[in-house]
Amino acid sequence: MKKIIDFYSNTNHFINDAIDRIVVEIHLKKQRDGYKKFMISGCEPGVGTTTIAINLAISMAQSGWKTILIDGDLRKITKYKRLNDELDLGLSDYLAGESLYPQTVYDTNHKNLFYLPSGSKTVNPISLLCSVKVDEVLDQLCKDYDYVIMDMPSITTSVDANVIASKMDGVILVTEYAKTDLSSVRESWDILNKSGGNIAGIILNKINTAEYGHIKKNFDYYKNQRYINKRSKSKSKMTI
Ligand SMILES: Nc1ncnc2c1ncn2[C@@H]1O[C@H](COP(=O)(O)OP(=O)(O)OP(=O)(O)O)[C@@H](O)[C@H]1O
Ligand SMILES: [Mg+2]
Predict the structure, then answer these.
(1) Which class is 18-237 in CATH?
(2) Which of 36, 61, 182, 187 could be bridged to 113 by S-S, CB 3.0 to 4.6 A?
(3) Is 159 exposed, middle or buried (0-12, 13-18, 19+ CB in 10 A)?
């Protein structure tokens, strides 16, 4: 029997609320423009791209959308992978012609959520990512799933994300608070534009919550006492 991948769910409701806002944006893009395939990549390595991709995919699946998360980072060795340290078959094996597409897709512990790991072949990722089989598998995934989320290495560390960008409906760029500077955003933006990527949005991750308190001040409105207090006050004032 095939392994079931365990996706760790975030329990921080501030983060979940922020992720839900991205889900809504993505859903609107689908309704308005028919977007289904999204690439997520960082301006720099380590900004939290994979973390966001995982949480986004979970949230979309929880909303009832049949979602597949693809690990498109063919360079990172298995040992450092977040989800698939024991999986051998994946995208690179399919692209190298050594396995069939359905064999490389795994079930997860979340309903509606599926996972396509990066695979075992790490030699020459570019030749694999440039192959016509990438287009074929993406077309098939769009038929089989409501949403396809592809997690890629950062724009400025390799050309892998540039190759994939133009094949996707939208690109989501991740930046990190107090780390990513404007020149890095401009550089990534230019690279993506030149490679035909359609930037759907930019995420500012790892914000300093003390400094950005005003942004999240209403994020937990329904979970904190404010809502309950407000409800009981307005009830006591009601007259018929
Ligand atoms: N919002 C956040 N708040 C705090 N820590 C975070 C946040 N997002 C990600 N991290 C942490 O940052 C580290 C890097 O995250 P992640 O692996 O998702 O980054 P990445 O951009 O995908 O990295 P890489 O370029 O190596 O693929 C991890 O330890 C992760 O737990
Ligand atoms: Mg990553």
Answers:
(1) alpha beta
(2) 61
(3) middle
